[in-house]
Design brief:
Number of helices: 5
Shape: elongated
Largest sheet: 9 strands, mixed
Oligomer: single chain
CATH topology of the largest domain: Tetrahydropterin Synthase, Chain A
Radius of gyration: 23 Å
Order of helices and strands: EEEEEHEEEHHHEH
Number of domains: 2
Distance between the termini: 63 Å
Helix content: 25-40%
Number of strands: 9
Structural class: alpha+beta
CATH class of the largest domain: Alpha Beta
Length: about 200
Amino acid sequence: MVGEKKVKKAVKKRFFEVEVPLTSAKVDLYAASIEELNGRVISLDLTRSLRGKNLELKLRVKVENGKLIGEPISAELVKSFIIKMIRKGTDYVEDSFESECKDVKVIVKPFMITRNRVSRAVRKALRELARKTLDSYMRTRDSKEIFSEIMSNKIQKTLSLKLKKIYPLALCEIRIFRVIEKVESVADKSKANVASEAVTAAA
């Protein structure tokens, strides 16, 4: 009939489960389809599972073999936790630098609190050794290993033991660990070189 309005069919939405391999957390996202969730960024507060440490884990959702997987892209200590840990009569040392894991480029921001006041020279020495140690440590591991070690406090303990030789710390943490971009693997570079040589030969 003329003038009859077409009624759009309502899209039925439902919950889809997202697997987060690094944690035991269960995440359900509401959407019309699984494809709609591809690329979405979600945040997880890990305070309860890490016994009071206010760590926020951000993940990018991707579709893999018909399933939703949460791929970690950053781990960050909440600012209020850092403020709470700073005491009078102490100094804090922080830094920010870019590094590489086996699979990605990252930004790393270590944060340290000394047990007492220290000189500028000691703070500088702590900062430099922390950067050197973390940079070499990360280059031998992939990002998932680093995320897992930050959450389990393994990398912080390793760093603290190194820095103890300069000055004992009251707190040694990775304040921010964030993925910037993927790094081309040796295998991928080799394939790219072979493809480039084949194109050149054909030309």
